[in-house]
Design brief:
3 helices, Cytochrome p450, two-stranded antiparallel ribbon, disordered C terminus, single chain, metal-binding, heme
Length: 175
Amino acid sequence: MLATHPEMETKARSECHDVAAANNGRIEWKSLGELKYVTAFIQETLRLYPTIAALATRETATDDYLPMASGKSYFVPKRFLEGSEPFTADKALRHGQGNTYYYMPFSAGAKNCIGMRFAMAELQVVVSNLLLKYSFKVTNQADLNPKQDGVSIKPVKLDMMVHRAATSFSTVDSL
């Protein structure tokens, strides 16, 4: 998503630079809470492209009708959800306004992913450190329409160019 939204990449990179500059050129555990826009960008990406796409095992035989059985899971296509398009990281900055079940990359409720916080922290560190050092551009040959493979969403042909960022930190370390 960074490669397809250069203005958002610039905004996220700027935030990373500010946070790193305030922490001796590093993105550390204690500074992850300061990465509000980067976190919002990650959350918006996961909302549109969760690692597990669907838990549904079948489609309806007729439009708009599926008998509801107790204890069963149902998949509702994104076109029926509020704000499915366009991608905007600012949407994730609304602090829980709206229906929280529009964002479920780690499931929801009491049985959600036990590693959710660790995974988010890991994503924040990796994305932030990449932004401090590199910029990303997709090529004309890239196929940006991911395909579902079982329950996972996978890129088809994520063809991109990676360049050293114009203002990279030389002392960046991860956790």
